[in-house]
Model the fold of this input.
Amino acid sequence: MFTIMVVEDDGELRKMFCSALRDHGYRAIPAADGAEALNVMERAFVDLIICDVMMPNMDGFELTRALREAAYDLPILMITVKDSMEDKQTGFYAGIDDYMVKPVNINEMMLRITALLRRARINSERRLVMGDALFDCDTLTVTCRGETVELPQKEFFLLYKLVSFPNRIFTRRQLMDEIWGIDSDTDPHTLDVHISRLRHKFKDNGSFEIMTVRGLGYKAVRADG
Done:
């Protein structure tokens, strides 16, 4: 499941966008301004940001610059009431990936999100391949060398998140927030149990390996990498 953060100071609009995203199969995280968005990203992994321009504390342009300066390369879809070339230019120079003008057509927004995720090499068809292993989000299965293993939902999405970004280190907090939710009171040891189960199930797969990065978290690497 892909996570999209909606950064919008209009509460009703923020709620509407989040609801539409959930209806289309995404996990939605709300934030009221750029400052809150940065705080959220310290403890949660986000695949894409939908961001308003005019906001208190930190506006959309400032948020985009801060993220790009911090080496975040996730797609950013900017939404604003302004339609001038100057504002578009400011946004693209700041580092946004796409631009929509209010009032926003929800269907068009979903199409743009799909395109942005595809360009970011996140598999929008909910399938992913690493080596000989095929990961299918719709069936929660991993098929490797003719053998298909169906996983419990949380185990699958934990593995899928890791293999979606080979060699990228995810902190334990990021993975807990992503899979179990930011407000969950699940015992952090649960993550270790899930990782252990995945390693056991795929110990001889030959395509990928889940590695522990001491003091940081976990990452997935290609078995031949």
About this structure: The radius of gyration is 18 Å. The longest helix spans residues 106-119. The helical segments are 11-23, 34-41, 60-69, 85-94, 106-119, 153-164, 172-180, 189-201. The chain has a mean pLDDT of 88.
